[in-house]
Amino acid sequence: MSDTSTRLGWPATPTPAEEAIIEPSAALPARLRLMSFNIQAGIQTRYYHQYFTRGWRHVLPDSKRVPNLRRIASLIRDFDLVGLQELDGGSLRSGFVDQTAFLADTAEFPHWYSQTNRPLGRFAQHSNGLLSRLSARSVTEHRLPGRIPGRGALIVRFGTEEAELMVVLLHLALSQRARLTQLAYVAECIGSCEHVIVMGDLNCHSRSPELQYLCAETGLREPFHDLPTYPSWRPEKNIDHILVSPSLSVEAAQVLDAPLSDHLPMTMAVNLPASLCGR
């Protein structure tokens, strides 16, 4: 743990949730710039055939990985909250670089929160991470249900108990049945929280039964539908999402033309209600 960052990253265990209480959060700003980005462990993919011809990069070190991570850092530095999926927490394939910490340091984010969902020892540390300009009040790691383990939810709370913003970072399963089960769990975690942001690679499109279920259960909304993010070289599928509560006013949402992974980054600018900002 460095002087300017906070790390929370536990290996997946049978425990459904683990929580850490951080220093009290400062007052929230009136406007937040959000990004959700699946970075594919820092691997830049331009064509389908590279999944096979360059598949070794998922298990072995690659000299092009760190320069690409620096390009990603340059892209994300103008945002306030950045939810990242498919990072490596420091293993052979990443040259034992904790990619969440590296990106936070390079892009000058003072706070970062990391969750390792599938620890494979020295060979891979599959992780998600949230980079933040704001200090969180608490961070909770949840192990999501599913027949194949290794999916998680990172729930980060900002503000006070009386005026709270909940941010949920997800990377959901590939099967629809598992996604429905996982989103039922997430909906239960959100409960009656009034101000919520859910972001991540949800592996389903805007009008899918899974997202319709989550929105019906929680009141969340996706202001702009059908913004494709995958594959980055010819985006056709909108599987990366940012959903928000009705209390958050959305200025704009945009997919950035930044093919630094096999996904494109999803971005959104939101205005927070006065009750969250002390106004």
Automatic annotation (TrEMBL):
GO terms for molecular function: endonuclease activity. SUPFAM superfamilies: DNase I-like. Residues 35-263 form the Endonuclease/exonuclease/phosphatase domain. The keyword Nuclease applies. It holds the Pfam family Exo_endo_phos. InterPro entries: Endo/exonu/phosph_ase_sf, Endo/exonuclease/phosphatase, GPI-anchor_lipid_remodeler. Transmembrane segments: none annotated. This is Endonuclease/exonuclease/phosphatase family protein.
